[in-house]
Amino acid sequence: MIDGxxxxxxxxxxxxxxxxxKQLRNLQPKLATLGTVKGIPSEAQLxxxxxxxxxxxxxxxxxxxxxxxxxxxxxxxxxHIVPAIMGISGxxxxxxxxxxxx
Length: 102
Description:
Layout: E1 5-9, E2 12-16, H1 21-34, H2 43-58, H3 66-72, H4 75-88, H5 94-99
Antiparallel strand pairs: 1-2
């Protein structure tokens, strides 16, 4: 199990690790859209969130599918898990990551 941030999704606690370098490289276009999520996310932004969360979770939970992640995500937990992934991956400062945790 890779160290990470503990997040509850669908009533289950998951340890969400940082994205790997390979994942960061492959997800760069998706990651760029996450910083622009304001109000109601677009379909592309929702897809990006699901793919980024799935990528991070797949490091510890390789059997978890993108479809399963999509079923567990909602607008409430999205506000917590995206900043957590961005923070632990070093893509935002610790203060920005903590600001997402209300």
